[in-house]
Amino acid sequence: MIIYEAKDYKDMSRKAANIISAQIIMKPNCVLGLATGSTPIGTYEQLVEWYHKGDLDFSKVTSVNLDEYRGLEKSNDQSYDYFMHEHLFDKVNIHPENVNLPDGMAEDAEKECKRYEELIRSLGGVDLQLLGLGHNGHIGFNEPGAAFEKETHCVNLTERTIEANKRFFASADDVPKQAFTMGIKTIMQAKKILVIASGEDKAEILKEAFFGPVTPAVPASILQLHNNVIVVGDQAVLSKLTNKDEYVTNADYRK
Ligand code: GLP
């Protein structure tokens, strides 16, 4: 695991965008696993800026998103489909047919999960998976307690996640109670994983996830067992890691 320390959110976004750009430059037809949430917004903004400058070309890129709320139409401005179009897809030259998310309106959940998993497989897997970190250590919508061996599945969201995500909705009651998410197994099969995190409020969970025991109680902790993980965090989120000697040594910490 390599941990890059960024000055602040803007610097984190720039560093993360640089890593994604490098992936696209090295393999123009790569499969990007993309994420939503507030953390990646700056990263997408930076990618869009570089695209407009002519430095990036998404024409051969395929994307698969991590997760989607169940029961929201694509046109709902809180759906992850809407988010991705608003922040990235509509602003760069990615082909609409190369963009993939779980279908939140699929009636048969099991069938939809199977379709999504098979799609990822048929694309040859994910080259670079971008991940944010939930306050309870969730990745995608894999909540604490989720079995590590799960592939794409439908989950019941925890109260904590509903609470955290209600800021985007009129009220907590409007937050969907279920979502489709790539499972931990799907995520772990990505060739490379890029985790971005920012802010003091996630400092404790970041420390637990990357330096605590590997346990389903902290879903992100499984990433310690992946052999190609890059973490880009700002100073605030990495602030609990100052006494580096306390921690396991397989992390390469770069300032
Ligand atoms: C949501 C998403 C996650 C995301 C997390 C953190 O629940 N399903 O993929 O990483 O929230 O979001 P934020 O970046 O807004 O803190």
Mean pLDDT: 94
- Through-space gap between termini: 14 Å
State the helical fraction: 25-40%
Low-confidence residue ranges: none
Please give a structural write-up.
The protein has 255 residues and is of the alpha/beta class. 29% of the residues lie in helices and 18% in strands. It contains 7 helices and 11 strands. It has helices at residues 9-26, 41-52, 80-87, 109-122, 159-165, 184-188, 203-211, and strands spanning 2-6, 31-34, 62-65, 67-69, 99-100, 128-131, 153-156, 178-181, 192-197, 229-234, 252-254. Strands 5-3-2-6-9-10-1-11 form an 8-stranded parallel sheet, with helices on one face. Strands 4-8-7 form a 3-stranded antiparallel sheet, with helices on one face. The protein is globular and about 50 Å long. The chain starts with a strand and ends with a strand. 2-amino-2-deoxy-6-O-phosphono-alpha-D-glucopyranose (GLP) is lined by residues 35-39, 66-67, 132-134, 140-141, 161, 165.
Summarize the structure.
Helix content is 29%, strand content 18%. The chain contains 7 helices and 11 strands.
Q: What would the keywords be for this entry?
A:
7 helices, 11 strands, 29% helix, binds 2-amino-2-deoxy-6-O-phosphono-alpha-D-glucopyranose, alpha/beta
What is this structure's SSE topology?
Elements lengths: L1 E5 L2 H18 L4 E4 L6 H12 L9 E4 L1 E3 L10 H8 L11 E2 L8 H14 L5 E4 L21 E4 L2 H7 L12 E4 L2 H5 L3 E6 L5 H9 L17 E6 L17 E3 L1
Parallel strand pairs: 1-10, 1-11, 2-3, 2-6, 3-5, 6-9, 9-10
Antiparallel strand pairs: 4-8, 7-8
Bound molecules: 2-amino-2-deoxy-6-O-phosphono-alpha-D-glucopyranose (GLP).
The site of 2-amino-2-deoxy-6-O-phosphono-alpha-D-glucopyranose has 14 residues, from α5.
